Amino acid sequence: MGTLLEDAFSIEPLLSDEERGWAATARAFATDRILPVIEQDFEDKHFRREFVGELGALGLLGMHLTDEGCAGAGAVSYGLVCLELEAADSGWRTFVSVQGSLAMSAISKFGSDEQKHEWLPPMARGERIGCFALTEPGGGSDPAGMLTFAHRDGDDWVIRGSKRWIGLASIADVAVVWAATDDGVRGFLVPTSTPGFTATPIDGKLSMRASIQCDIVLDDVRVPASALLPGAHGLSGPFSCLNEARYGIVWGAMGAARSCLEAALGRATSREVFGKPIGATQLVQQKLANMFVEYEKGVLLALHLGRLKERGELTPTQISVGKLNSVREALAIAGEARSILGGDGITNAFPVMRHLANLESVRTYEGTDEIHTLVLGRALTGLAAFA
């Protein structure tokens, strides 16, 4: 992987040649394609649709799935790709996550053979885009209280309701819509061209500006019985997909942290104040050391969780530990990096404020700090405190 931080960290010997190859592929794409344009894209609120096919051609979409057209890569390989993409921008790791860990995973886990054959190969190539419609305007932390409802009408299903903060919805070809039914929560594959389906990008965002999040309205959307995901019954369906996405965040947030730490380290050794580099002062060295320790711990935790996942031993509680820690520490690292950069740290000459803003979104989605804290509290005490 090869940066000063990674040479000090010595993670390379812990990885296989295949894992290093996936990381190198993602880093090259991030360096050559995303980084030259991301500051302007963030300023312009521009999502580069043309990158989707390129990511598909590299095998990065749904790469951890073993279905037709998917790469079948290991969990650590997928995590390293998330890290490298988020080191460039959280929005692009989010895209890969929504496409692969949410929409494609839902189809892979719960779809019929026909649904898998229709959707997964073109989604893996980036020819079709999916979104995952779970969160509602009233809040995302209590999906059991969702108001979107689907009822049977002859051989069809009719869906009515609304969703909010749905990534990619306005450019998606298919939405995985979760709705309450008389038989509990079920998932439906809804082509976005279906009458009654409307997706509107949310404007005014000060975070994730190079990404797309939408409001969705489902106004008596009628789909055939074949749209139902046959293997998904109850909230365990969407939750299993969310855990796939949360796992990617464990790695991805450390990519944003690395980018901020590298910016701070470069500034600390090049900027001179009082006749010497600011990195020669004890206070700045203390900040850099603390930042590096938390980055190192975060990546080692991600690697441990990845190895557990590859053995089929990873639990939702362990994922909550990783998501809570990685995002919390990445935000702390980004904040300290901004302080080392001084006034220039608030400009787009450095990526730090962009990462800080994006990480505030990452902190909220796929389970807030509070939700993951309560997951851990329940695991430790045996007592639920969600209500």
Question: Could you give a short description of this structure?
Answer:
With 387 residues, this protein is of the alpha+beta class.
Please explain how this structure is put together.
This protein has 387 residues and is of the alpha+beta class. 52% of the residues lie in helices and 15% in strands. The chain contains twelve helices and nine strands. Strands 2-3-7-6 form a four-stranded antiparallel sheet, covered by helices on one side. Strands 1-4-5 form a three-stranded mixed sheet, with helices on one face. A two-stranded antiparallel ribbon has the order 8-9. A hairpin with a 2-residue loop joins strand 4 and strand 5 (184-191). Helix 8 (236-270) packs parallel to helix 10 and helix 9 (282-310) packs antiparallel against helix 10.
